[in-house]
Amino acid sequence: MRHGETITIDDLDRDPFPHYARLRAEDPVAPVPAANCWFATRWSDVEQIARSPDFTAVSDEAPVNAAFGRPNVLTSEGSVHAALRGGIEPHYRPRQVAGYIEHLVRPIAEAQLAAFRASGSDDLLTGYFEPISALALARSFGFMEVDVPTLRRWFHGLSQGAINFERDPARDAICQAVVTEIEAVARPLLERLARAPDNSPLSHMLHSGMEAGQVRPVEMILPSVKITLLGGMQEPGHGAANLLVGLMQNPDQFAALRADIGLLPQAIDEALRWIAPIGTMMRTALRDTQVNGIPVPEGTPVSCIFASANRDETRWDNAEAFDILRPPKAHMAFGQGAHFCAGKWFAKAQIEVTMRVLIEAFPHLAFAEGPPDFRGWEFRAPTHCRIAL
């Protein structure tokens, strides 16, 4: 029996990396029935699929379609994809992000750190990283009045739909309850922005590229709003948490970073490579094709496993290790091809500000009860970041 046929979702949630390593070595493009798709696990295979005209982002199997609806920015192509992405992307380009990120994130981080200290909690994941990520994305995107508890509930509910490869009715119910709540807030906001546009990405999604007096229908925008909320709230917060755990497990590297804070950008990239907060991208074969000589039949849904490609032994020495001093090299934590994450620069800049505020406030950080476990494969993060106070 092929290894992919024996893998369970619980196996992947507990620790996908041994399974990815075996698939890379033995069966790099292979069916994984538990996830209702094939997995592509090697760097070169993922790169080929992401750029090949034989594969499309349009997928009936992608969990985000059932969870959030269509069209959406992840599973559309051509003019539809360009229109949806065109409303989101301009606000998150590198130059734009550099102009506002410190002013946006530092006050949020400092206020959240004060709230964390006053709360009596010792968990930086729930008390610091996730709230900053949720608030920074919401305020930059155009949700100006939604509070942290609501945003975190939205994030965790949406994630249950996005990771629902096994079609679990319980996960679907959790997600749909949150979707209903989000739409109740988003519909009136979008309708108001249709009449009175502003400079937010939400407004641009309605108006960009449209003739004067015309706007895109709210129904066309809503699925991508949910996807942006989820990805934008998840990746920076969990990327920062993954970085902190990597540093605390490697004190010599943490000391090197404290001695030269200029190492922080490459430390962020290493953390994103080591444990990609978002691990996959779905593609579907448009015709009978091959991936580096491996036959893939028409209609096959293939999950490109970025988290595995980022540990490909042919690309990195000692790929399983966290090492902020390794020679810089591009990773796939933000995807590949036309669908790479539009929030890449926003996420990395947000993590940098978040970590600077934390390091400034805590000259010494230590685990309260030993290193945390990690959980998840589509979204992977520590189960907590409890520190000794």
Can you walk through the features of this model?
By secondary structure, this protein is an alpha+beta fold. The protein has one domain: Cytochrome P450 (Cytochrome p450), CATH 1.10.630. Helix content is 53%, strand content 8%. The protein has 15 helices and 9 strands. A hairpin with a 4-residue loop joins β1 and β2. The chain is globular, with a radius of gyration of 20 Å. The model has no long low-confidence stretch (mean pLDDT 96).
Short overview:
The protein is α+β, with helices and mostly antiparallel strands and 389 residues long. The protein has helices at residues 9-14, 17-26, 43-51, 63-68, 78-88, 94-119, 124-141, 148-162, 169-195, 201-207, 218-248, 251-259, 264-274, 306-309, 344-361, and strands at 29-32, 37-40, 55-56, 280-285, 289-291, 294-296, 301-305, 374-375, 381-382.
